[in-house]
Each structure stands twice: as C-alpha cells, then as structure tokens.
Amino acid sequence: MLEIGLCLIREGFTMTAERLEKIFREILDILDIGIHIIKTNGDTVLYNSSMGKLERLVPANVIGKNLLEIFPSLNNETSTLLYVVNTGRPIVDRVQTYINFKGQKITTVNSTYPLKDGQKIIGAIEIAKDITKLKELSEKVAFLQSSSKENTKRKKEGHPFAKFTFDDIVGESKEIKKTISMAKKAAQTSSSILIYGETGTGKEMFAQSIHNASSRRNQPFIAQNCAAVPESLLEGILFGTVKGGFTGAIDRPGLFEEADGGTLFLDEINSMGANLQAKLLRVLQEGVIRRVGDTNIIPINARIIAAANENPIECTKNGTLRKDLFYRLAVVYIKIPPLRERKGDIYILTKYFIKNLNKTLGKNVIDVSRDVLKVFMEYEWLGNIRELENAIEGSMNMIVNESYIEIEHLPFYILEQYNQDGNYIYKDKNIENEDKLAKYIIPYNNQDAEDAYDIADSALDQVIDRIEKEIIVKTLDLYNGNITKTAEKLKIKRQTLQYKIKKYGLIL
After folding, report:
1. What is the SS3 assignment for 415?
2. Does the structure show a pLDDT above 60 at 248?
3. CA-CA distance, 464 to 466, in Å (whole number)?
4. 503 phi/psi in degrees, rounded to 5
5. Cα(470)–Cα(458) distance, rounded to whole angstroms?
6. Residue 392 near residue 351, CB atoms below 8 Å
7. Contact, 305 vs 195, CB < 8 A?
8. Where are the alpha helices (DSSP H) in 104-225?
9. How many CB atoms lie within 10 A of CB 388?
C-alpha cells in the first residue's frame, strides 16, 4: 500500500491523505483476493469486497468491529489473525475449510502476516484466495480414482451386484404379471431397454432380473444413477479418463468398459445433461466410446438398460430427454405400474414385508389390523412399494408387545391425513365404501401364491373373517392349542377366543 502511494506521488498525483486512502480502498476492492486487516486488539481496520464475498459478509458491517464479535466461534488460538498478532510469526498458504453463517462450505488458502512499526507489532493482515472450485475438482479426481478401484474390486469378485431375479418380484395382480411377462421376453434379446416407473416401483429390481435371465448373466451388471453426480463428473465415470485429459486425471476405464459383455443400467436417464445424452446416443449407434481427453476409440459390447422416473414421452416434450435418444433406448419399452394401480398386491406385499421385517427387527408381528388394512387400500402411495415397506418398518418399530400394526403405529405423514373424527380422507375416488374396497384384497399365503383365493366378489366382512381365522389357527398352532397363551398373544379375552374358535368351527 505504501509503495502504491509513493508511486502515485512520484508520478505527480497531488492529493490529500483522505483521497489517497480512498484510492487504496478502491484498488483493494478491485482485487480478486480477500484482505482483512486488524489492530492488535482485534478490531477490524480494513475488510475488502473480495473477503466479504468469500465469507458472505457485508464489509460495512465488519469494519470497526472486533474479530471475535464477527466470528464468535474463534478464539486467540484458532484465529490465524490473532495468532499472528500475539506471536509475530507469519502463517503462509494455510488451507482452511469452514462453514459460513449461511451453512455454505468455503475452502480458502490464507497467508497471514504481522504488521510492524519498527519492531512493534501494530496489527496483522490476512490475504485469502477462494479455492473451493479447485478443491471440488481435486475431490472429483479422487472420486474417479476410488471409483476405478471399486470397479476393479467388483470385477475380481465376479460382480455380485445383480442379486435380484424375477422370483423376487412380489405380486399376483394382472398388472404386475403382465409387466413381468414382457420383461422376461426382453431378457432373451440384446436390444436396449427403457424402463419407466415412478420412484419406488422397483426399476433396478426389474433391470437386475432381466440381466440374470439373459445370456449375459455371468457377465458384469453395473448400475449408475445419472442424477447422483454432476454431468462433468458423470462423463468421466461413464467413458473413462486418460492421463492429462484434465488436471489430476489418470488412465482409468469407464463404466462402459467395466460393463463390457454385460449390462449397464443407467437410472434416471432423464436427469442426464443434453451434451452427455448426445454422446450416449453415439455409443448406442456405433458401439464405441472415447475416454475423456483421448483421441482413440474403444469398441464396447455392453447392453444398455435405462430407466426414467418421469414419463419419457413428456420428457421428450419438455426437452429433458432427446427424442432420438428415446427412440434408440426404447427398442423395448417397459412400464412398471405404480402401487395405486395394482391394489390387489398391497396385502400380499404387506404380509411379505412383515414376515421379512420380523426377522430383521426381532419382532413377532402377525398382521395389520382391519383399520390399517383399510388405510393401506385407500392411501395413494406416491412413494410406491418403497414407501409401503418403509411405512411398515416404521410402524413395527413402534410396536412393543402388540401383535398387530394398529392405526396409532402408522407414520405421522399417513396419520395426518385423518380428520378430527378419526376418519380417513379418501384419496382414491374410485373407492367409496368398504364393499368396493373388498375386491382389492387378496390374502397372502406364505407357502404358495397359487393358493391365494380370489375374493373379488366378496364383502369386506367376509375377507376379514377369513384373515382372522387364519391368524387364530396359526397362533393356536404356535402355542400347541393352549387357549390362555393364545388369547394373551392375540390381546383378547379367553372367552372371546373360545367364541371365535366355535364360530369358525376350529377343532383343537
């Protein structure tokens, strides 16, 4: 600052001290580095605009205030400025990462020096440079390197990631059976597949099932969510990189190469950027890829299964999915029905999840109550099967000694849809009363789904009676016909149990 002032004076600029100081501040505000100067007592003397941008503070609100007042989380030891003032020792090129008051993570490289008048320390100056973007780039490089190691590990282990088969898809409704049938046919070809399904419908489960039913079953199955990483990083992950392609890049194969001979599943394809979609289209058309930063082409033989969580037709209209890519991917087009369109599977899935979660959570839940079953049939399930499973798991965590999932055990977001009288607010306008509700319930048999009986024409009371009878029989069998223990387990009176045994004609 002194050198600048002397230079101006030598060149003939005559001005007052105030004018000279104003010019100094204007120059400092033009610089793209942050500058913060304090007195020995910690009061801020100068704080330029670039430092304000770094720390998301208004310079006018900082100048004149004490450092510890501005940053109450700091102290004499943790503040670099105060440390330099107290010790007289400079700190050079220290990288700092901190959270500003808006919750944003900022990474800077700082140099802090003491200001002296002769041998006396009169303050300190800190010069800071924002390297957040540079740090993000280095993290991307590290991610690519770790991704390469993970892919190599997967290859050595035989890619144990395609664990699902068509036998794992639970459901007896005609809607899901039709979808499974179409997927099984698609598994016998090598054509590209586009799967459309709302969030939570099981798109990757279908993709893995197709892979495991295909001739590629012994080859890699690799999945990548296109919405999980930024496009600049996703390109390197998919196509690979070469050393020198960008700062810190290494020679690394991409997922296309890792999936060679097998299947590459690209989830949420509608979230992929337009430029990357164009490159994917070229891969599908020509069967070759080019690593980022490379000029050589590499032939690949990976089957592409893509998935979208929004209607692909609508995506082509609003521009989030290229039309030419849609036509190339949708050689085989599979639509997974949402849970609200396959209500006949809700009770089957409920029993399936209860059975599995009993083992996981160490519970002994028998079933859901009649009221809960009614809620499940009426609820929209915007999160589909995943939401149903999570709702059941959350409910079972609320159970201590009960054997049934009751209304009070349900998650808050479901309970909020009840009015003050405790009645459920209908969301499905096609279900107006319990008689119509009955046709959606298909009792689930753990042994063989073919034994499930069709009750499309039955009233709800008849359905509940059949379920109740099944529960009583199983509980009696569990306690070897002991009436007292069975009644205690079912949380009913002994006389009530005897009445129901007589009602259903059970023989002990």
Report:
1. helix
2. no
3. 5
4. -60, -40
5. 17
6. no
7. yes
8. 132-156, 174-187, 203-212
9. 20
Give the burial class of 18: count Cβ atoms within 10 A of its Cβ; 0-12 exposed, 13-18 middle, 19 or more buried: exposed
Q: What does the alpha-carbon distance between residue 428 and residue 442 come to, in Å, rounded to a whole number?
A: 19
Q: What is the DSSP string of 269-311?
A: GGGS-HHHHHHHHHHHHHSEE--BT----EE---EEEEEESS-
Q: How many CB atoms lie within 10 A of CB 275?
A: 11
Chain centroid to Cα 205, Å, comes to: 17
pLDDT, tens digit, 9 for 90 and up, residues 198-221? 999 999 999 999 999 999 999 999
Q: Report whether 428 contacts 332 (CB < 8 A).
A: no
List the structure tokens of 206.
């279908």
Nearest to 315 by CA among 326, 306, 304: 326
Nearest CA to 410 out of 434, 435, 381 is that of 381
Alpha-carbon distance values, 401 to 371, 468, 478 (Å): 19, 19, 16
For 121-153, letters b (16+ CB in 10 Å) and e give bebbbbbbbbbeeebebeebbeebeebbeebee
List 109's β-bridge partners, or say none.
95, 129
Q: Determine if residue 202 is left, alpha or beta; phi over 0 gives left, psi from -120 to 50 gives alpha, anything else beta.
A: left
DSSP H helical ranges for 188-334: 203-212, 231-239, 255-258, 274-286, 312-318, 323-329
State percent of the chain over pLDDT 70: 74
pLDDT tens figures, 170-194: 998 999 999 999 999 999 999 999 9
Burial of 193 (0-12, 13-18, 19+ CB in 10 A): buried
For the full predicted model, state whether its pTM sits above 0.85: no
What are the angstrom distances between the C-alpha of 490 and each of 198, 431, 479, 480, 508? 38, 30, 12, 15, 17
